[in-house]
Amino acid sequence: MKVNGEKYRTIWPAEDGSGVVIIDQTKFPHTFETTSLLDLEDAAHAIRVMQVRGAPLIGATAAFGVALGMKADPSDESLHAACDTLLATRPTAVNLKWALDIARKRLIQIAPERRAHAAFELASQICDDDIATNMAIGMHGMELITEIAKKKRPGEPVNVLTHCNAGWLATVDWGTATAPIYMSHDSGIPVHVWVDETRPRNQGAFLTAWELGHHGVPHTVVVDNAGGHLMQHGKVDLVITGTDRTTADGDVCNKIGTYLKALAARDNGVPFYVALPSSTIDFSLSDGLSQIPIEERSGTEVSHITGLTEDGRTETVEIVAPGSDTANPAFDVTPARLVTGLITERGVLEANRKAIVKAFPERMKMSA
Fold first, then answer.
1. Which pLDDT tens digit goes with each residue over 332-341?
2. Does one domain contain both 117 and 198?
3. Is 245 annotated as a binding residue?
4. 203 marked among binding-site residues
5. Domain that includes residue 94, residue range
């Protein structure tokens, strides 16, 4: 995507070969900064503190993290230690384990002296594949938006509500939930996006709004609890979210608050779609509510917020009454019964095992 007219991915190898460069997402929305990852611990730290976030980008960063580990020490012991270190950074997004499993299985078969080069090639291929996958998701999702647009008056926009950030900042490029939006906008279809602020880290207000603005897509930031109200008044045509892990039976785990949007959508007859690459499907799980681990993050994300003061300073302030306990579950699970369809690189699927296995039979065999 473009930032101030310049094309960017969210992660790329440094030109001098010293490491990997990322866009530091903890600096948004008021500062655009890149930072270099020079070793394995840098990559693990970037995932842990959410300098990079979003399931596909976490997977890509983990692959580059393994490559940085192999650059320092290409031994078998180092390979296993690198994968274990990166796997421990965040528990919910399955793309992390997916990328590390691929790296471990492929690199262990390669002679140590060739591992670093092979690891960097693998990480780059994962990035290229992610872009191709997201473009396919975008094309399939755009068909849904196109059908709704046909029923609109000339110039009337299709109103999409999204939650959290499943944009190009959550992937290598294009995004998952945003890819259909960008492609529709670029094709001349009027689109307007309701952007949930997505407390407590405000990924909607900080990230989704930032990238939609840079792409020129009309959007409005709303508080998380406004979605149901907007649906009741006919101001939402469809909901599109991303997911960090999806079960083989179609349950989806996404940023906390997604489940409530799905309930409101069902009550108001609004289609609720989830956009995802097949790498986000965990074929070893069937019941998302009982089997998907939910990351519990620091309570300071709830009790404190960072913003820009009127005189241009970035400040973090406390917003919760002193002495109050805080809880911060980062994700929730939306049951398959509330999902209208899964927008994947192989088409829009029903959220059930039969449809998912039919679309991705090779993935099912790999997990058996």
1. 999 999 999 9
2. no
3. no
4. yes
5. 2-128
pLDDT of residue 56: 96
What tokens appear for 252 in the block? 């989806």
Q: Flag whether 7 is marked binding.
A: no
> How far, in Å, are 136, 243, 304 from residue 133 at the CA level?
5, 15, 36
Query: Pairing between strand 272-275 and 252-255?
Result: unpaired
Domain C-terminal end among 103, 128, 153:
128
Q: What is the pLDDT of residue 368?
A: 57
Same domain, yes or no, for 296 and 165? Answer: yes
Number of domains forming the structure of the chain: 2
Distance, CA of 203 to CA of 121 (rounded, Å): 31
| The predicted structure's pLDDT at residue 146 | 98
pLDDT at 366: 64
| 19 annotated as a binding-site residue | no
Domain end position, chosen among 73, 107, 128? 128
Give the tens place of pLDDT for each residue, 76-109: 999 999 999 999 999 888 999 999 999 999 999 9
> The CATH number of the domain where 45 resides is what?
1.20.120.420
List the chain residues with pLDDT less than 50: none
Active site residues: 244
What single letter denotes the amino acid at residue 360? F
Question: CA–CA distance from 335 to each of 128, 277, 341 (Å)?
Answer: 31, 18, 12
3-state secondary structure of 2: strand
